[in-house]
Amino acid sequence: MMDRATQLKNHLTATDYAIRTAEANAARERQSVRLLAVSKTKPAADIKTLYALGQKSFGENYVQEAAEKINELKEFDIEWHFIGRIQSNKTKQIATTFDWVHTVDRKKIANRLNEASHGKPLNILIQVNVDLAETKSGVDPTELTDLAEYIWNLPNLKLRGLMSIPDPKSDDQLRQSHRQLKILFDNLKRDHPAPKIFDTLSMGMTHDLELAVSQGSTMVRIGTALFGARAPKE
What we know:
The chain is of the alpha/beta class. It has one domain (4-216): TIM Barrel (Alpha-Beta Barrel), CATH 3.20.20.10. It has helices at 4-25, 44-52, 63-72, 91-97, 107-116, 144-152, 171-191, 209-214, 224-227; strands at residues 34-38, 57-60, 79-82, 100-104, 122-127, 157-163, 200-202, 219-222. An eight-stranded parallel beta sheet has the order 7-6-5-4-3-2-1-8. Helix 4 links the parallel strand 3 (79-82) and strand 4 (100-104). Helix 4 packs across helix 5. The chain is globular.
């Protein structure tokens, strides 16, 4: 049976190949899309193995679980991304534990992260509910500009871009959702030119990686293809 380290190496190689192929198919510049390894529920040993293979960015959904792994792996220069739903009472721990937060969708959360953040600015993505789905978090697209303006004025936050988690649907509907987020991203970037750094469009997971890259994603969040499917609950 294949050992875990070899399995993870093969998965990382295959995932990188899928990303680079998607870039080429979309006539995108090579290496224009970053891989965020979604390591929620996975052991620190898996993260350490992937880090040794060159993967430096990891995404976590659960604050307490992540804090334990981050502490265990503090000797490694890992870039930690929080990609879960934000509870108000966890903002201080999130701000002091992570390098990036992907799921900011309201001013209250942004303000609390700003107040808790010290040292280097915290990289922020606004989560947009592009489908207006009741089951999904995210700011209404019509309220995005107002929230972005608010975050740009907070001194301890660095707004880097947008993210979304569209509802599972057909390829055509997913393509439209990704395209809508790209339009919102381009409009904000156009209206707020340099020196502000606004460079990250986080969209696409294992099942829709190629679609997301074709519509302009600069960061794909991959868990299953890297770590394998979660074991079924007994």
